[in-house]
Amino acid sequence: MVKRVFKMWMRYSALTITIGVFFSVAACGIAGKTFESEKNSAEKIAPLTDIWREELAGHDLSEFERSVLERAVKTGRIDQNDYEQAHAKYLQCMTAAGYDQLKYNKMPDGLYKLSDDSVTDANYFDKSVECSEGTTRVIEADFRDQQDNPDRYKDPGIVAVQCLRDAGKVDKDYTAAEFNKSVKEVAAGANPQDAFAFPVSGSDSQVIYCLSLGGLSLSGDFDSEG
Hints:
This protein folds into two domains: 5-45 and 153-221, no CATH class; 48-148, no CATH class. It is built from ten helices and six strands, in the order βββααααββααααααβ. It has helices at residues 35-41, 48-58, 63-75, 80-96, 124-132, 137-148, 156-166, 176-187, 192-195, 205-213, and strands at residues 5-8, 11-12, 17-18, 104-106, 112-114, 218-221. The chain has a two-stranded antiparallel ribbon with strand order 1-6. Strands 2-3 form a two-stranded antiparallel ribbon. Helix 4 crosses helix 5 (124-132) and helix 7 (156-166) crosses helix 8 (176-187). The chain is globular.
């Protein structure tokens, strides 16, 4: 018997915006391509420094956000410490609003993810959006894109498969086209364990992380039991 109790979370970034799962429509692969050929022919998105300059010119930024982006334009990257400060400012706001039981896990890319055992309520989302203004709303999305997609691939499936390959979770024949097909199957209701050609377990944090890079952020119990 397979438990099918799992959640697919919403995430916002400069690369993709979707509900539940987020993957690019342009991510459809061509049958017969190898992963290397997919990368070689892949469409790229704008350099991060160009995006940061646009944000500085067009966004209503806080003094903190503006200082972070100005440094990033000069150095070519957002420093981990700047992201840590953004997260700390966000937490300070949430704590002041009464959310003092929030727990976070630090992911391999240096970002924080809210733990499933955090104490929230019906007003949490609205307060989170409010507290992100001027703190993490811009900085976290930009830092995520920097950390997760440094080569600026438009297709998040390529980013995910590279992560899986680097971690030894898939063999060299596995492609982004296969990955994107599986993501669509999960979006249509398939259990992640059935959809992917590699083991997917909620206890394997590396696989869960790689899946998130490809637009699929899973939480909950989807492991098999006898």
